[in-house]
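> tool_call: predict_assembly(chains=two)
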Amino acid sequence: MDRRQFLEAIAGISSIVPALALLPATDPGAFAATLHARAQSTGALRTLNPAQDATLDAIAEMLLPQSDTVGARAAGVNRFIDLLLSESMLEADRERFLEGLAAIDARSQSLYGAALVAARRPDQEALIGALDAQLPLNAPTAAERAALERQPMTAERGYATLKQLVVFAYFTSEPVAKGLIDAPVIPGRYDGCVHV
Amino acid sequence: MSTSEPIEYDAIVVGSGISGGWAAKELTERGLRTLLLEAGPPIVPERDYVEHVQAYSLRYHGYGNLRQLHEQQPIQSQTGACDEWVSKFFVNDHDNPYRNDADKPFLWIRGRHVGGRSLMWGRQVYRWSDLDFEANARDGVAVDWPIRYADIAPWYSHVERFIGVSGQQERLAQLPDGEFIAPMQLNCAELKVRDAMQQHWGRERVLTIGRVAILTQPHLGRAACHYCGPCWRGCITRSYFSSNGVTLPAAQATGRLTLRPNSVVAEVLYDERRARASGVRVVDADSMRSLEFKARVIFLCASALESARILLNSKSGRFPAGLANSSGELGRNVMDHPFGAGAEGTLPGMEEHKTFGNRPNGFYVPRFRNVRDRHPKFIRGYGFQGGASREGWQRGARTRGFGAQFKQALLRDLGPWRVGIGGWGECLPRPDNFIALHPTLKDKWGVPALNIHCTFGPNEREILKDMQVTAAECLEAAGARDIRTFDEDYAPGLCIHEMGTARMGWDPKTSVLNRWNQAHEVPNLFVTDGACMTSSANQNPSITYMALTARACHYAVEQLKRREL
């Protein structure tokens, strides 16, 4: 299947792929896998609306993009985060997460006059770069967390939470944890000092 | 209950955790037909142990179902081990209620199943010394321990030889060496910290590998550790000590053990005419029927607060305030180790090195405060536990960067060496830290729930402060950067070392148990779990419970033979 055939084949689902422009066009195989994963995941979303999903997906793929190893999208990051939002997270945390997503979009709107997914790629990267530069390098203490939760949401805090979840979702996904991370389940011995 | 079940035994043991498992083994091996009553369900290792289950196989990849935890286990889930894999090993907080004053939180973390908390425990085992056993007498605190190190030392050996304790001999008076099997390795960063501390403090602050009840070599039919890592999720190779893997099989091998799960002990029955305990009343957790079992000797090993709760609920004309409680000390002197304070930092260098395998152990720094010197602000002291490691992808959430290179770096590289050191401090016994039966609240099985009153006092708070300073000093000496001190401000209980509610002592007027863990007032009643502790020391207490249990069983059987119980 070449790229053209593939695009025809997925014509029916292209409407639920708002970030098509972000997809790599050079590797049809990866492109197909990506779209299948995305079509499957979008169909199953229970908490994220299409706009929220697109924003999350765009940022996740910017953080951990498809390269010679799978990216966030192909690893099912958005579907997994939607599962956590729908079943696991406490309501207050879920609301904070969605507020954070909205705060990032609002920042994009005020800087570039467009929501994040509609902004130009360089603008998207500039915004994520600016938010990333503010990422706290230490996990907050319990007291710091409690104090933060009383403050209004900001794009910076929204980004920090989102990055944490995206990293967790990606690296605990089966294709990554099983396929890419070299950690034997039963090492059989412990050595306190081996060469990298 | 099947009608063929004999209802008269030589011994009844209440609780199948670390202490109860030992009581069952020792009593059956010494010839007693023993009924072991466990409040919770059986454990089937092939079904219940999940140490090799990978995160991606779980619905939430280890993130857990926080809504369900918040609803069903709001207290239990405050300990890290109550995770998506094994929250099933912790009780349901609704079925097992208790209360505390709103401004005095106490976290009571429990496992009700065969093996109890021996399945999820931390496996750290440290002998006490006379610095600990003499402490109350020396400081004029509470009452004197009725035993000294010489009384318990052979029983530590007895326990260590059977369970297998991995550790390094250090010849320190305050932390006696045990009968160790091969130690685990310190890693390169930990060796650097150890050497730096040696240079700065000589033999005063010694860093050694943790002493753990984990096999580094095959031992009495059990396999050596394979370093998969998460011991608290079970161990199919029985490489760490649990009742299920070690003491209960030994007890079963005698043919004299009857293990009865789902048996909630509500009270110990007292025969006023004979002035002896006659048996126990049990609520069958499945049928909710009330049953009675009789025995010549009774061992309470249900955990410090549970054993005291059972005794408080065992009221009679002779003991209106609870069995064996003429002293009024039953339920008092609750202790738990203050912990969660220390320091962490980054150790530069050694970037060409990493570790292989998941060592289920860290390093230990034996107590160095108030050993020879005298600290101006507090009595007693603390030990450090810690470890060094290089983070993998987990550092990604707190590492700046994004894009393909960021992703590849998280996949391929490791973060710098991070070292964390946290203190486990001694807690002083205070009569105003106490438990009492709640006037109306009952658990699912109709047993009165507890009111728990417990706070840390000024001595514990000073210890928590000092831990942070000295932990940072150790890191600084090792050349660490970005040193950050911390105090998590944990409520008492979270260390899961609760103890002291039926203390041992010389005087029946001021203690519940004598020097053999035998109730002063009820000779055939023994309490050998954490309830018996007269002080807390700062060492992880489990091996002391095991040794005291074995010692008390030996004594009880000798007394039974002489018909003196």
